[in-house]
Amino acid sequence: MDLALSEEQEAVRKLAEDFVAREVTPHVVAWDRAENVDRSIVGKLGELGFLGLTVPEEYGGSGGDHLSYCLVTEELGRGDSSVRGIVSVSLGLVAKTIASRGSEEQKRQWLPRLTSGEAIGCFGLTEPGTGSDAGNLLTRAVRDGGDYVVNGTKMFITNGTWADVVLLFARTNDSPGHRGVSAFLVPTDTPGLTRRTVHGKLGLRGQATAELVLEDVRIPASCLLGPEGKGFSLAMSALAKGRMSVAAGCVGIAQAAQDAAVRYAGEREQFGKAIARHQLVQELLSDIAVDVDAARLLTWRVADLIDRGQDFATAASKAKLYASEAAVRCANNALQVFGGYGYIDEYPVGKLLRDARVMTLYEGTSQIQKLIIGRALTGVSAF
Ligand SMILES: Cc1cc2nc3c(=O)[nH]c(=O)nc-3n(C[C@H](O)[C@H](O)[C@H](O)COP(=O)(O)OP(=O)(O)OC[C@H]3O[C@@H](n4cnc5c(N)ncnc54)[C@H](O)[C@@H]3O)c2cc1C
User: Fold this and answer.
1) Which 3 state secondary structure label does DSSP give 108?
2) pLDDT digits (tens, 9 = 90+) for 323-376
3) How deeply is 278 buried, as exposed, middle or buried, from its count of CB atoms within 10 A (0-12, 13-18, 19+)?
4) Which helix (H) or strand (E) covers residue 213, if one does?
């Protein structure tokens, strides 16, 4: 097994690293304090092809394999998880789903705009009353002639206030649980759709997280994505691939924690020598380093399985579970290395910890990942 990157993959990774150093890193603290990433970053991500990775070139995508997608996602996560999330959702959950499940007309309508950054997508599954138990969502889409009329509320929607289109999941019949759920592409300027920014997040403070309220939103039947009643399996397959992207973002957080902690440990002196020379500080650093490597290898394996057309869903859950928990541990250990200075936002590690914390919660909590892995091992579903 060859774990070396090809020249092309290394070039994409370097492009992302340079982009982050130039366009992201100088603004990270200000965006975090202002609770607002500069929206112009979206066009810049599009210009470099980062919003079109793995999408076919005929629809405006930049092609490439899933390992390249992981490398870019890791570099963005190393810079700012709020920026990484824009790509993971607009490309990873929305554009890639349109590319794989959309009609020709839907692909032509949305993909060139989403991959260039002219438009942004969001993924509307979670509701106030249904998070882990997403199959029991309450939003309804009722057929009315050639239209559907949609009513409901979506909660915690990443890119929500910025998005031009929402990949929305709604109940189209009274079948119990997930069987009655369908997927729709709803333009966010449709009358009746309103958005409210969710403020006060612990981390990802620069990200546009929103509550979406739909009141008698009338959309043509051509907005249906995939067959009626098959929306839940479409959502689950989007999330399975999405977990690789979250895992890669977590590797980025963990790597950033390692870089910062190693640098600081070499500079800071206590008891007459650099703290890096104290064995218990070295233990913190080595715990971080092992977590970084393990998380990265689990994540790259998912990319390899996808690119070879193999089953990847359980591997994606393992990678997401491990990488998200590892990102929290690494950021926390890095904060310990920084001592009191780690607690101040002039230094990077406090934000890394705040941003990492949500990774064990969204796109399936750690408990849900364990249930998915347990089901694959035993053949018995605990859901
Ligand atoms: C910043 C942010 C961004 C988000 N972005 C999006 C987005 O773009 N689109 C979207 O649709 N959603 C999004 N979400 C929602 C996210 O996916 C949900 O918060 C998540 O799925 C958990 O749902 P919940 O918050 O309702 O928690 P709950 O489902 O209420 O879970 C609460 C606790 O119970 C545990 N639990 C639940 N069921 C079980 C079980 N069967 N066995 C064991 N333990 C269980 C959970 O693991 C958790 O610890 C986002 C959330 C946040 C915070």
Assistant:
1) helix
2) 999 999 999 999 999 999 999 999 999 999 999 999 999 999 999 999 999 999
3) middle
4) strand 209-220
Task: Note the pLDDT tens digit of each residue in 81-116.
Answer: 999 999 999 999 999 999 999 999 999 999 999 999
**What separation in Å is there between the alpha carbon of 377 and the centre of ligand 1?**
23
Residue type, 354: R
The residues near 208 (Cβ < 8 Å, ≥ 6 apart) are: 36, 37, 158, 159, 160, 161, 162, 197
Q: Which residue has the CA at smallest separation from atom 32 of ligand 1?
A: 132
Task: Write down all domains in the chain, each with its CATH number in brackets.
Answer: 7-120 (1.10.540.10), 123-228 (2.40.110.10), 233-378 (1.20.140.10)
Do residues 365 and 376 touch, judged by C-beta distance below 8 A?
no
Residue 49 CA to ligand 1 center (angstroms) comes to: 31
CA 218 – CA 233 distance, rounded (Å)? 24
169 Cα to the center of ligand 1, angstroms: 16
Pocket of ligand 1 (CB under 6 A): 89, 122-126, 131-132, 156-158, 201, 204, 209, 358, 361-363, 365, 367-368, 371
Q: Is 363 a catalytic residue?
A: yes
